[in-house]
Amino acid sequence: MKRLFVLLLPILLLTTCVQQIGVDLPDASEKLVVDGLISTLPGPYTVKLTKTAKYTTGSDGTNFLVPGATVRISDDAGTSEILQETSPGIYKTQAGGIQGQVGRRYTLSIETADGKKYQSQPELIKATPAIENIYYEFVEGSPGIEEGFYVYVDTRDPAATEDFYRWNWVHYEKIQYCFNETVPPSTTPTILTCCSDCWEIKRCNGCVNVASDRLTNGALISRQLVAVVPYNSRSKYFLYYEQHSLTREAFKFWQALEDQSKNVGGIFDKPPATVRGNIGNVTDAEEIVLGYFGASDIKANGIQIDRSTVAKNPSGPLPVVAPPSSGPPPPCYPCYESILRTPITPPYWVE
Length: 351
Fold this sequence. Notes:
Helices cover about 5% and strands about 40% of the residues. It has one helix spanning about 250-260; strands at about 1-10, 20-25, 30-40, 45-50, 65, 70-75, 80, 85, 90, 105-110, 115-120, 125, 130-140, 150-155, 165-175, 175-180, 190-195, 200-205, 210, 220-230, 235-245, 280, 290-295, 300-305, 340. The strands form six sheets. Strands 3, 4, 5, 8, 9 and 23 form a six-stranded mixed beta sheet that branches. Strands 6, 7, 10, 11, 12 and 22 form a six-stranded antiparallel beta sheet that branches. Strands 15, 18, 19, 21, 24 and 25 form a six-stranded antiparallel beta sheet that branches.
């Protein structure tokens, strides 16, 4: 048990007396955090396992990866696959391995290196309709309004079913230079071209964008905002976007996270609470497990946003100066696959 000592100064500073108060703070137990999804798009699929850190460790609440686990995805038809750990705490299915199908239920099973066993509730893949239209509009910035290109989709909700949706996006930008750093003892940056095609990746990290058909059942869901593209350049901006189907339980989970993300600390905000997902300890129902294992039908596509049509100047910095074109060509730098870059042509990419 840790003790935190708080120094209280009298409000009016009428005395120099300082009172010391000891406050008992319980140590927060570590919790397993699970982030995973299987879908109707071809794999590989990824499951990420981390654990929350105690605030007394000085880690500022960061999560720690959980290596050495046995992770399995199975369906209600008897198909299953054990995921391979490709890096600490990151588990992937094989290319061409298990793939989600509409109407099937999928379960995630985990056994950690210390022998603890966890399992998700079976998650049904529900069908999601096609996106009928995607379009964008430029909005100038003003107090409380972010400037940029607002990207909207239209989709027609089925009347016969109760439906829930989530939208996600990834931005890919083709780059020419893969290295731009100052290497001591030099004081000028070294700029190297990419040895192959290369794309930088910006994901919708932390974004929660969900909706239900409670008020639109059987009607057109119109002008659903998917993303706001910044106007920091006149170059084209490629956006890969997805529409996910959700179960009622998954919708409640993501909606709770969305509500918490909108809290600004006002007196009328809901108090923060632990958002429990669909995963539990097989032998200890009291253990709290964070995160969610989802199963979705996904409709995906891409769109190029032409940012050269706006009359005003963009807000971004000047472009990086290229190395001199005269003389022998400089060495190139590899485009390493990571969460920030890829040498693989993105889906739906157009030059």
